[in-house]
Design brief:
about 200 residues; alpha+beta; four-stranded antiparallel β-sheet; three-stranded antiparallel β-sheet; 5 helices; 7 strands; about 45% helix; transmembrane; membrane
């Protein structure tokens, strides 16, 4: 899967993969923001993240307390009309429903600038976002290997080794792949080779 579209509560999130980057468009109430994220900027760490407005939950509980207090007050005063307490109980229930409806369950993917990419876990269903994330990581790994897991005897040893370490740290290559490339690098490029001046 190369595209993912998610819509919830007037918010649209569109994700599209190219050969070397992820295009992300976020729009809400007609305001749109589109950015492109190079694969180099996607660290790939995926964690579960829930977003909810606890103030709304607190307000709902507060209104329930008011409804209960009014109900008890009417009983203590011998009143039979509970319409006021019922009204506030209905209001509290509506607020609680709003709270549950607006809770968001995301996959949070870390980016190199300490920002995160958020992808709904269950929109349009559970399987499609999972497949898209797998495609994203697979395409990222493929691109990074093609461009950074190469050995060139004319390039600096240390910078090439740093590339291999970076690829291993973000999970683009395995430890075994790293060790194989490391041995190949040492056999191809002299670690003590200097770029400036004269060697002794």
């Amino acid at each position: 899967m190369e595209e993912l579209r998610q819509t919830k509560n007037f918010t649209k999130r569109d994700y599209r993969l190219s050969e070397n980057k992820l295009f992300y468009n976020h729009s809400k109430f007609g305001n749109s923001n589109e950015i492109d994220i190079p694969f180099e900027n996607i660290e790939g760490e995926k964690v579960s993240h829930k977003i909810s407005n606890n103030n709304t939950l607190f307000f709902s509980v507060l209104v329930y307390i008011v409804a209960i207090a009014l109900f008890i007050s009417k009983i203590n005063n011998g009143g039979d009309d509970q319409s006021v307490s019922l009204f506030w109980a209905v209001i509290a229930t509506i607020i609680l429903a709003f709270y549950w409806f607006n809770r968001d369950d995301f996959w949070k993917i870390k980016l190199t600038d300490n920002n995160y990419l958020y992808i709904h876990k269950n929109i349009p269903n559970k399987e499609i976002p999972e497949n898209f994330i797998n495609s994203l990581i697979s395409k990222r790994n493929e691109y990074l290997k093609e461009n950074y897991l190469i050995i060139d005897e004319n390039l600096d040893y240390q910078s090439q080794l740093s590339n291999f370490k970076w690829l291993k740290s973000i999970g683009a290559i395995s430890k075994i792949e790293f060790e194989e490339k490391y041995l190949e690098l040492k056999a191809t490029v002299n670690p003590r080779k200097t770029d400036i001046g004269f060697g002794k």
